[in-house]
Amino acid sequence: MADRALFIPIILGTARKGRRSENAARFMFEQTKGRAGVETEFVDVAKIPMRLDDAGEQMKDPGFSALVTRADALVVVTPEYNHGYPGLLKHALDMNLDEYVHKAVGICGVSAGGFGGTRVIEALLPVMRELGLVTILHRCELR
Ligand SMILES: Cc1cc2nc3c(=O)[nH]c(=O)nc-3n(C[C@H](O)[C@H](O)[C@H](O)COP(=O)(O)O)c2cc1C
To answer: What is the pairing mode between strands 73-79 and 134-141?
Structure first.
């Protein structure tokens, strides 16, 4: 048993108005919050301060960097957009690097389609591995 609670933030990966993925992310958040020995925080990609005229570590947001540094693992809840991931999620993830290394990431792909998020998970795998994260997969089909 760990001598402190694990910190596992839930990251909602889309800023779209009316995003239904928020329901899945809130569900994941409540489930995580209810687990003994785990602390969590809800992170909305729409609220992470980000420049749009730059990319990568040079535009790192100190708050998001500190959150990922503190995290033992991450859960990313993301919709599937044209078989890929939202650009804003990638833009946010790219701001950190060392903060991720050898931490576990759970990917929860969300879609209204029959393959419910499968392809966004597939698309995110190489990204997560390049960032140094270790992947765990889950898919969620909205009804
Ligand atoms: C730009 C865009 C592209 C989409 N592409 C796909 C897709 O490739 N496959 C799929 O199953 N659903 C696709 N969807 C539908 C989403 O799965 C659906 O909107 C679902 O509610 C999750 O996204 P949301 O959180 O933005 O609501 C797309 C939606 C948008 C807005």
So the answer is: unpaired
Calpha distance 116→63 (Å, rounded): 32
For residues 79 and 120, the answer to whether their CB atoms sit within 8 Å is yes
User: Measuring from atom 28 of ligand 1, which residue has the nearest CA?
Assistant: 81
Q: Residue of the nearest CA to atom 21 in ligand 1?
A: 20
Which tens digit of pLDDT belongs to each residue from 50-98?
999 999 999 999 999 999 999 999 999 999 999 999 999 999 999 999 9
Residues 74, 106: contact at Cβ < 8 Å? yes
pTM of the model: 0.95
How many whole angstroms separate alpha carbon 68 and alpha carbon 70?
5
Domains, the chain, ranges and CATH? 6-141 (3.40.50.360)
